[in-house]
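Researcher: Here's my situation. A collaborator sent me these components and asked whether they could plausibly form a single complex. I don't have experimental data yet, so a predicted model of the whole assembly would be a useful starting point for our discussion.
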Amino acid sequence: MAINWNAFWEWANPRKFMWWTDRALPYFAVLAALVLTSGLVWGFFFTPDDYRQGATVKIFYLHVPSAMMAINIWAMMLVASLIWIVRRHHVSALAAKSAAAIGMTMTLIALFTGAIWGKPMWGTYWEWDPRLTSFLILLLFYLGYMALWEAIDNPDTAADLTSVLCLVGSVFAILSRYAVLFWNQGLHQGASLSMDAEENVADVYWYPALVAIAGFVLLFITLVLLRTRTEIRARRLHALDMRERAQQ
Amino acid sequence: MIRLFWRDITLAFRSGGGFGLGLGFFLILVTLVPFGVGPNAEMLSAIAPGILWVGALLACLLSLDRIFALDFEDGSLDLLATAPIPLEGVVAMKAFAHWITTGLPLVIAAPALGLLLHLDSAAYRWLIVTLLIGTPALSFIGAFGAALTVGLKRGGLLLSLLVLPLYIPTLIFGAEVVRRGAGGFLVGTPLAMQAGITLGAVALLPFAAAAAIRVALR
């Protein structure tokens, strides 16, 4: 069956985007709230304490999903930036802009929860471990990206320049990720939720973690739609303002 | 393009001390460090590779906004963009001129400053080699950052926020080479990685920078 790609792009037409998000947003919001609460409540209150880490293991339900989102949101921004460069789709550029602040918050959550967990477990809030350092660098990339958006008045220029920065920044973010491996050996445990790993986290922790991750994804979708709607409205206001000034 | 290169170098030499500024900053930074951490020779010798690399990085950063800002203000960047040479080539030449006027003096001065910091004698060779290989990457990455911020009124601070995270891989490998050199270990791997970053930056970033300049001139 041939997919009609034109029909697909039509969903991102600003007016149509506003129309369908207006209807879809409440569902996403309710679903996000439900899934996130059930995942966290399940994780916090209905899983046993770990035999070595005690109750501190439960911060894992905030730490892992937020860390995953922090990386995936940057990837989403990369895709949105590419779509903007190739197709000049305004909604795409605005979605990338709205995602940046959420991604930065996720990075901060991951860093803070990690620090809180690290104090009793590793005996330190901060360690120059490759994973921790990569996240700090990721935070810097988010900051630079957002600062560039703020600094440029013309929205199209800002979209163009931030897209280029996002592309170049992605390459350097990946480079930094592997460069820090070179620079210091890690204290952080390896990936414990991979599909292909031999030893994973036990199922009692694994299922609530999955629900929490789904909750974080839904939360992100809700927030990014909401913020993109705000950006579109701000752009419309700006256009109205300009038109009125031109008439005077 | 060759003429553009000489023009940039001549301008850097003549326009009111812009040339020596980075070098002076490097010297001051290296002088300040012992005041901050104490004159203990062993400690200084241990942190010397990192200080020298961070100093070179910051000294490079200082003169980045001069790459395009002056030409943008007086309109010569518009002329260069419409000239019958590719804008990518213009960017590459200007970044190269920036390296000659900022990076190369740093490379030459670094051993003398290493002496001040009691750098291990085995490390001098690697300090020069790694700075020689790494500083072109600093200039080209910096030219990209300068191109992003060229049209902005208060671009200076933003420029450092954008460019410094991009410098991290270069810094890691550069300082690692010197540290390993000081310890008498093999330096091949980090050196090769750093050379790879430099070559990649020189080959690809002029395109990104030229794209950013076209947007800024639109």
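Model: Some features of this prediction you could bring to your collaborator: Chain A has seven helices and no strands. Helices of chain A lie at 5-10, 14-45, 60-87, 90-122, 130-151, 155-183, 203-247.
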